[in-house]
Amino acid sequence: MFLAGLPEPWRTGWAPFARALERGAVRLGLAPLASVAGWLADDLEIGHPSSFAVEKAIAALLGRPVAAEPLDESPFARLVRIGPRRPARRPRVLLVAPCSGYAASVLAELAAVLLEAGELALLEWRDARLVPAEAGPWGMAEQAAEAGRAVARFRPDLVVAVSQAGDAALAATLAARARGDGPAGLALLGTPSLPEIDPTPLQRSLALLPETTLAALCLVEVAAGWPGAGRRVFPGRLQLATVVASDPWIYGAVRLGALAERLDGRAGSHSRALGELHALQDVPAELWLDLVARLRAPTPALPEAMREASRGLALLTVEAEADALVGRGQTHGLHDRLARGAPRAAFTLAGAAHHELFTGPRFRAGLVPRLSSFLERLRGG
Question: Which CATH code of 3.30.70.270, 3.40.50.1820, 3.40.30.10, 1.10.3430.10 fits the domain covering 54-201+290-380?
Answer without folding.
Answer: 3.40.50.1820
